[in-house]
Specification:
This protein has helices spanning about 25-30, 35-45, 50-65, and strands spanning about 5, 15. By secondary structure, it is mainly α.
């Protein structure tokens, strides 16, 4: 995924923004709290660009899209 890197030597292989040690999960958690792209780049991670945050969202979407969901039928 463009902008996202997985390195077993960084955060035990958790996906991070390429060239940083900032985990995708950390950015998604900030977004889930309602924190804006602008506030994330100003107050939390000034080294990031809005495109880096967008890459985190795109990574999460791609991950969910690739999931193979198995639905179990309910037995009565």
């Amino acid at each position: 995924m463009n902008g996202i890197a997985v390195d077993p030597q960084i955060h035990f292989g958790k996906p991070c923004i390429a060239g940083t040690r900032i985990k995708v999960q950390d950015i998604l958690e900030l977004l889930s709290e309602g924190i804006s792209f602008q506030d994330i780049t100003q107050d939390y991670y000034p080294e990031l660009a809005p495109e880096d945050i967008q890459a985190c969202l795109q990574y999460a979407i791609a991950l969910i899209a690739s999931e193979d969901i198995q639905l179990a039928s309910a037995s009565a």
